[in-house]
């Protein structure tokens, strides 16, 4: 009934307990050294369900489960050599499909079994210059796992290793054995260096090379760079990747979309500005979503300009254009952000993207710009009103505009100048009837029809219904351009404030119908052409 509490028992109690305590100890994530000694003593007594270690076979070793990790050399040396070898082979066969933590345990077992074999069956005196066992060939390549590093160096020729490199790297290897393999590969290509096509075969060995060694590689093809960057070979350090990319670009290589995916946004930000200049716009178009939030502002600006060129063919469909260029908007100038805001489609920018905009450019956006950019996400701006970026932007805006246009309770804007009560009255009049639009009072000749700022009639809601038909719109002084069949009306849904103008800026008398773009998917597929976009 102790269950997992058995893991806290003292060694003396383990020895004095019923042998079935071994089944309880299987529940323990780890045993202390003294607990492991007690476990081995109990097994060596032969009075357990597993019998004497000399009678164990492959099935017995497998039945021990996690307890096999606690077996010492004394216990393992009593197990028949045939049983140990069968167990080693079963571990090696399962190694490929195991996760990282399980692989580490498998390597521990293989080392323990190899040590037990060496201790229980002493072989001929080792020679400093020749292998004492059967040499490793393609037919017995899996026997590598039973050799100590120094034996591996003697029994595996450089030629056999290079010819069977992929098969060797599929086998479980200790870090010491991996260093031996790296040394032998370097010896094989000594003088000429590792060729491009051979570099892509290095797999996990590639991670053992220093930045200085990588700087000598002849990595000239995108296929080789992609193979080296693959996660299948294990993790790289940032400095190794930086050196690898620098070497590739120095040898005339070009970064493609798939390569940018392999590199990732974080490491892309580690490139030098001169290297980023070498990235073609076509690569950005096919790279998919890249997180460049860690880039410097200068590099964000560089990447945005490339993205703008890459997705220029989508400019007539603002929703699709926004979804593709969204990861790069941290480098967008205010002019481009205003164009997005006034595109006639509510793009519903999320607050994460909004807060990642260039702080200097964000301060240039008007209240109406921000309203149209955020769309249905506008209420979330209130939740972030204490963000430094939002605070500084609010302080530059008219409080009356914040109240009348946004109407989400933001405070801290510039106070209303004295003697402009008429404008305040206009704001009040426009909100008294949410479902209609009230025309400009006669004594304010510069004001046109003002739409209600409430959500039910906001230009950013997903509706194609024009603003209220109950009002008599004044004729526009600037006739709208005739839109092309594939381009939404370029007439902006609102006019941003300008120096010296009224507190509440004039609004076009007949704003274009504004629809909401379809939401961007979490993982945008790379754009290959306009049709697929």
From TrEMBL:
<protein>
    <submittedName>
        <fullName>MSLNL protein</fullName>
    </submittedName>
</protein>
<keyword id="KW-0325">Glycoprotein</keyword>
<dbReference type="Pfam" id="PF06060">
    <property type="entry name" value="Mesothelin"/>
</dbReference>
<feature type="compositionally biased region" description="Pro residues">
    <location>
        <begin position="476"/>
        <end position="511"/>
    </location>
</feature>
<keyword id="KW-0732">Signal</keyword>
<dbReference type="InterPro" id="IPR026664">
    <property type="entry name" value="Stereocilin-rel"/>
</dbReference>
<dbReference type="GO" id="GO:0007160">
    <property type="term" value="P:cell-matrix adhesion"/>
</dbReference>
<feature type="compositionally biased region" description="Low complexity">
    <location>
        <begin position="440"/>
        <end position="465"/>
    </location>
</feature>
<keyword id="KW-0472">Membrane</keyword>
<keyword id="KW-0130">Cell adhesion</keyword>
<feature type="region of interest" description="Disordered">
    <location>
        <begin position="440"/>
        <end position="533"/>
    </location>
</feature>
<feature type="compositionally biased region" description="Polar residues">
    <location>
        <begin position="521"/>
        <end position="533"/>
    </location>
</feature>
<dbReference type="InterPro" id="IPR010335">
    <property type="entry name" value="Mesothelin"/>
</dbReference>
<dbReference type="GO" id="GO:0009986">
    <property type="term" value="C:cell surface"/>
</dbReference>
<comment type="similarity">
    <text>Belongs to the mesothelin family.</text>
</comment>
<dbReference type="GO" id="GO:0016020">
    <property type="term" value="C:membrane"/>
</dbReference>
């Amino acid at each position: 009934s102790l269950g997992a509490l058995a893991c806290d028992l003292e060694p003396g109690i383990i020895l004095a307990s019923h042998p079935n305590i071994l089944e309880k100890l299987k529940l323990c994530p780890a045993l202390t050294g003294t607990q492991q000694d007690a476990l081995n003593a109990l097994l060596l007594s032969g009075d357990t369900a597993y019998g004497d270690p000399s009678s164990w076979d492959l099935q017995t070793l497998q039945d021990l489960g996690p307890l096999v990790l606690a077996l010492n050399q004394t216990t393992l040396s009593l197990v028949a050599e045939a049983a140990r070898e069968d167990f080693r082979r079963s571990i090696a066969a399962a190694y490929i499909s195991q996760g990282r933590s399980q692989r580490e345990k498998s390597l521990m077992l293989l080392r323990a079994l190899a040590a037990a074999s060496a201790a229980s069956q002493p072989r001929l005196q080792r020679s400093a210059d020749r292998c004492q066992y059967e040499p490793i060939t393609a037919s017995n390549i899996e026997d590598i796992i039973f050799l100590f590093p120094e034996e591996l160096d003697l029994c595996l020729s450089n030629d056999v290793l290079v010819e069977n490199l992929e098969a060797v790297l599929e086998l479980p290897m200790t870090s010491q054995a991996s260093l031996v393999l790296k040394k032998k590969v370097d010896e094989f290509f000594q003088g000429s260096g590792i060729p491009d096509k051979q570099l892509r075969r290095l797999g996990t060995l590639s991670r053992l090379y220093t930045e200085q060694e990588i700087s000598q590689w002849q990595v000239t093809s995108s296929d080789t760079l992609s193979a080296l960057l693959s996660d299948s070979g294990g993790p790289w350090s940032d400095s190794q990747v930086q050196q690898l990319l620098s070497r590739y670009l120095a040898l005339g290589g070009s970064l493609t979309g798939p390569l940018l995916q392999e590199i990732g946004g974080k490491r892309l930000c580690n490139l030098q500005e001169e290297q980023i200049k070498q990235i073609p716009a076509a690569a950005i178009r096919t790279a998919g979503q890249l997180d460049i939030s860690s880039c410097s502002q200068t590099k964000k600006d560089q990447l945005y300009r490339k993205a703008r060129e890459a997705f220029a063919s989508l400019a007539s469909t603002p929703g699709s254009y926004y979804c593709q260029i969204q990861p790069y908007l941290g480098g967008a100038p205010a002019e481009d952000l205003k164009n997005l805001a006034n595109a006639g489609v509510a793009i519903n920018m999320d607050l994460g993207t909004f807060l990642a905009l260039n702080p200097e450019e964000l301060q240039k956006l008007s209240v109406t710009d921000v309203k149209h950019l955020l769309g249905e996400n506008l209420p979330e701006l209130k939740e972030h009103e204490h963000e430094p970026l939002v605070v500084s932007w609010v302080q530059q805006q008219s409080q009356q505009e914040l109240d009348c246009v946004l109407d989400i309770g933001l405070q801290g804007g510039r106070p209303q100048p004295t003697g402009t009560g008429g404008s305040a009255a206009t704001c009040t009049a426009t909100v008294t009837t949410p479902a209609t639009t009230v025309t400009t009072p006669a004594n304010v000749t510069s004001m046109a029809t003002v739409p209600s700022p409430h959500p039910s009639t906001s230009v950013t809601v997903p509706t194609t219904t024009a603003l209220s038909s109950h009002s008599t719109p004044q004729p526009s002084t600037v006739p709208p351009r005739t839109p092309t069949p594939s381009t939404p009306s370029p007439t902006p849904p609102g006019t941003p404030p300008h120096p010296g103008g009224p507190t509440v800026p004039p609004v076009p008398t007949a704003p274009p119908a504004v629809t909401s773009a379809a939401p961007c998917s979490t993982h945008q597929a790379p754009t290959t052409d306009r049709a697929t976009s």
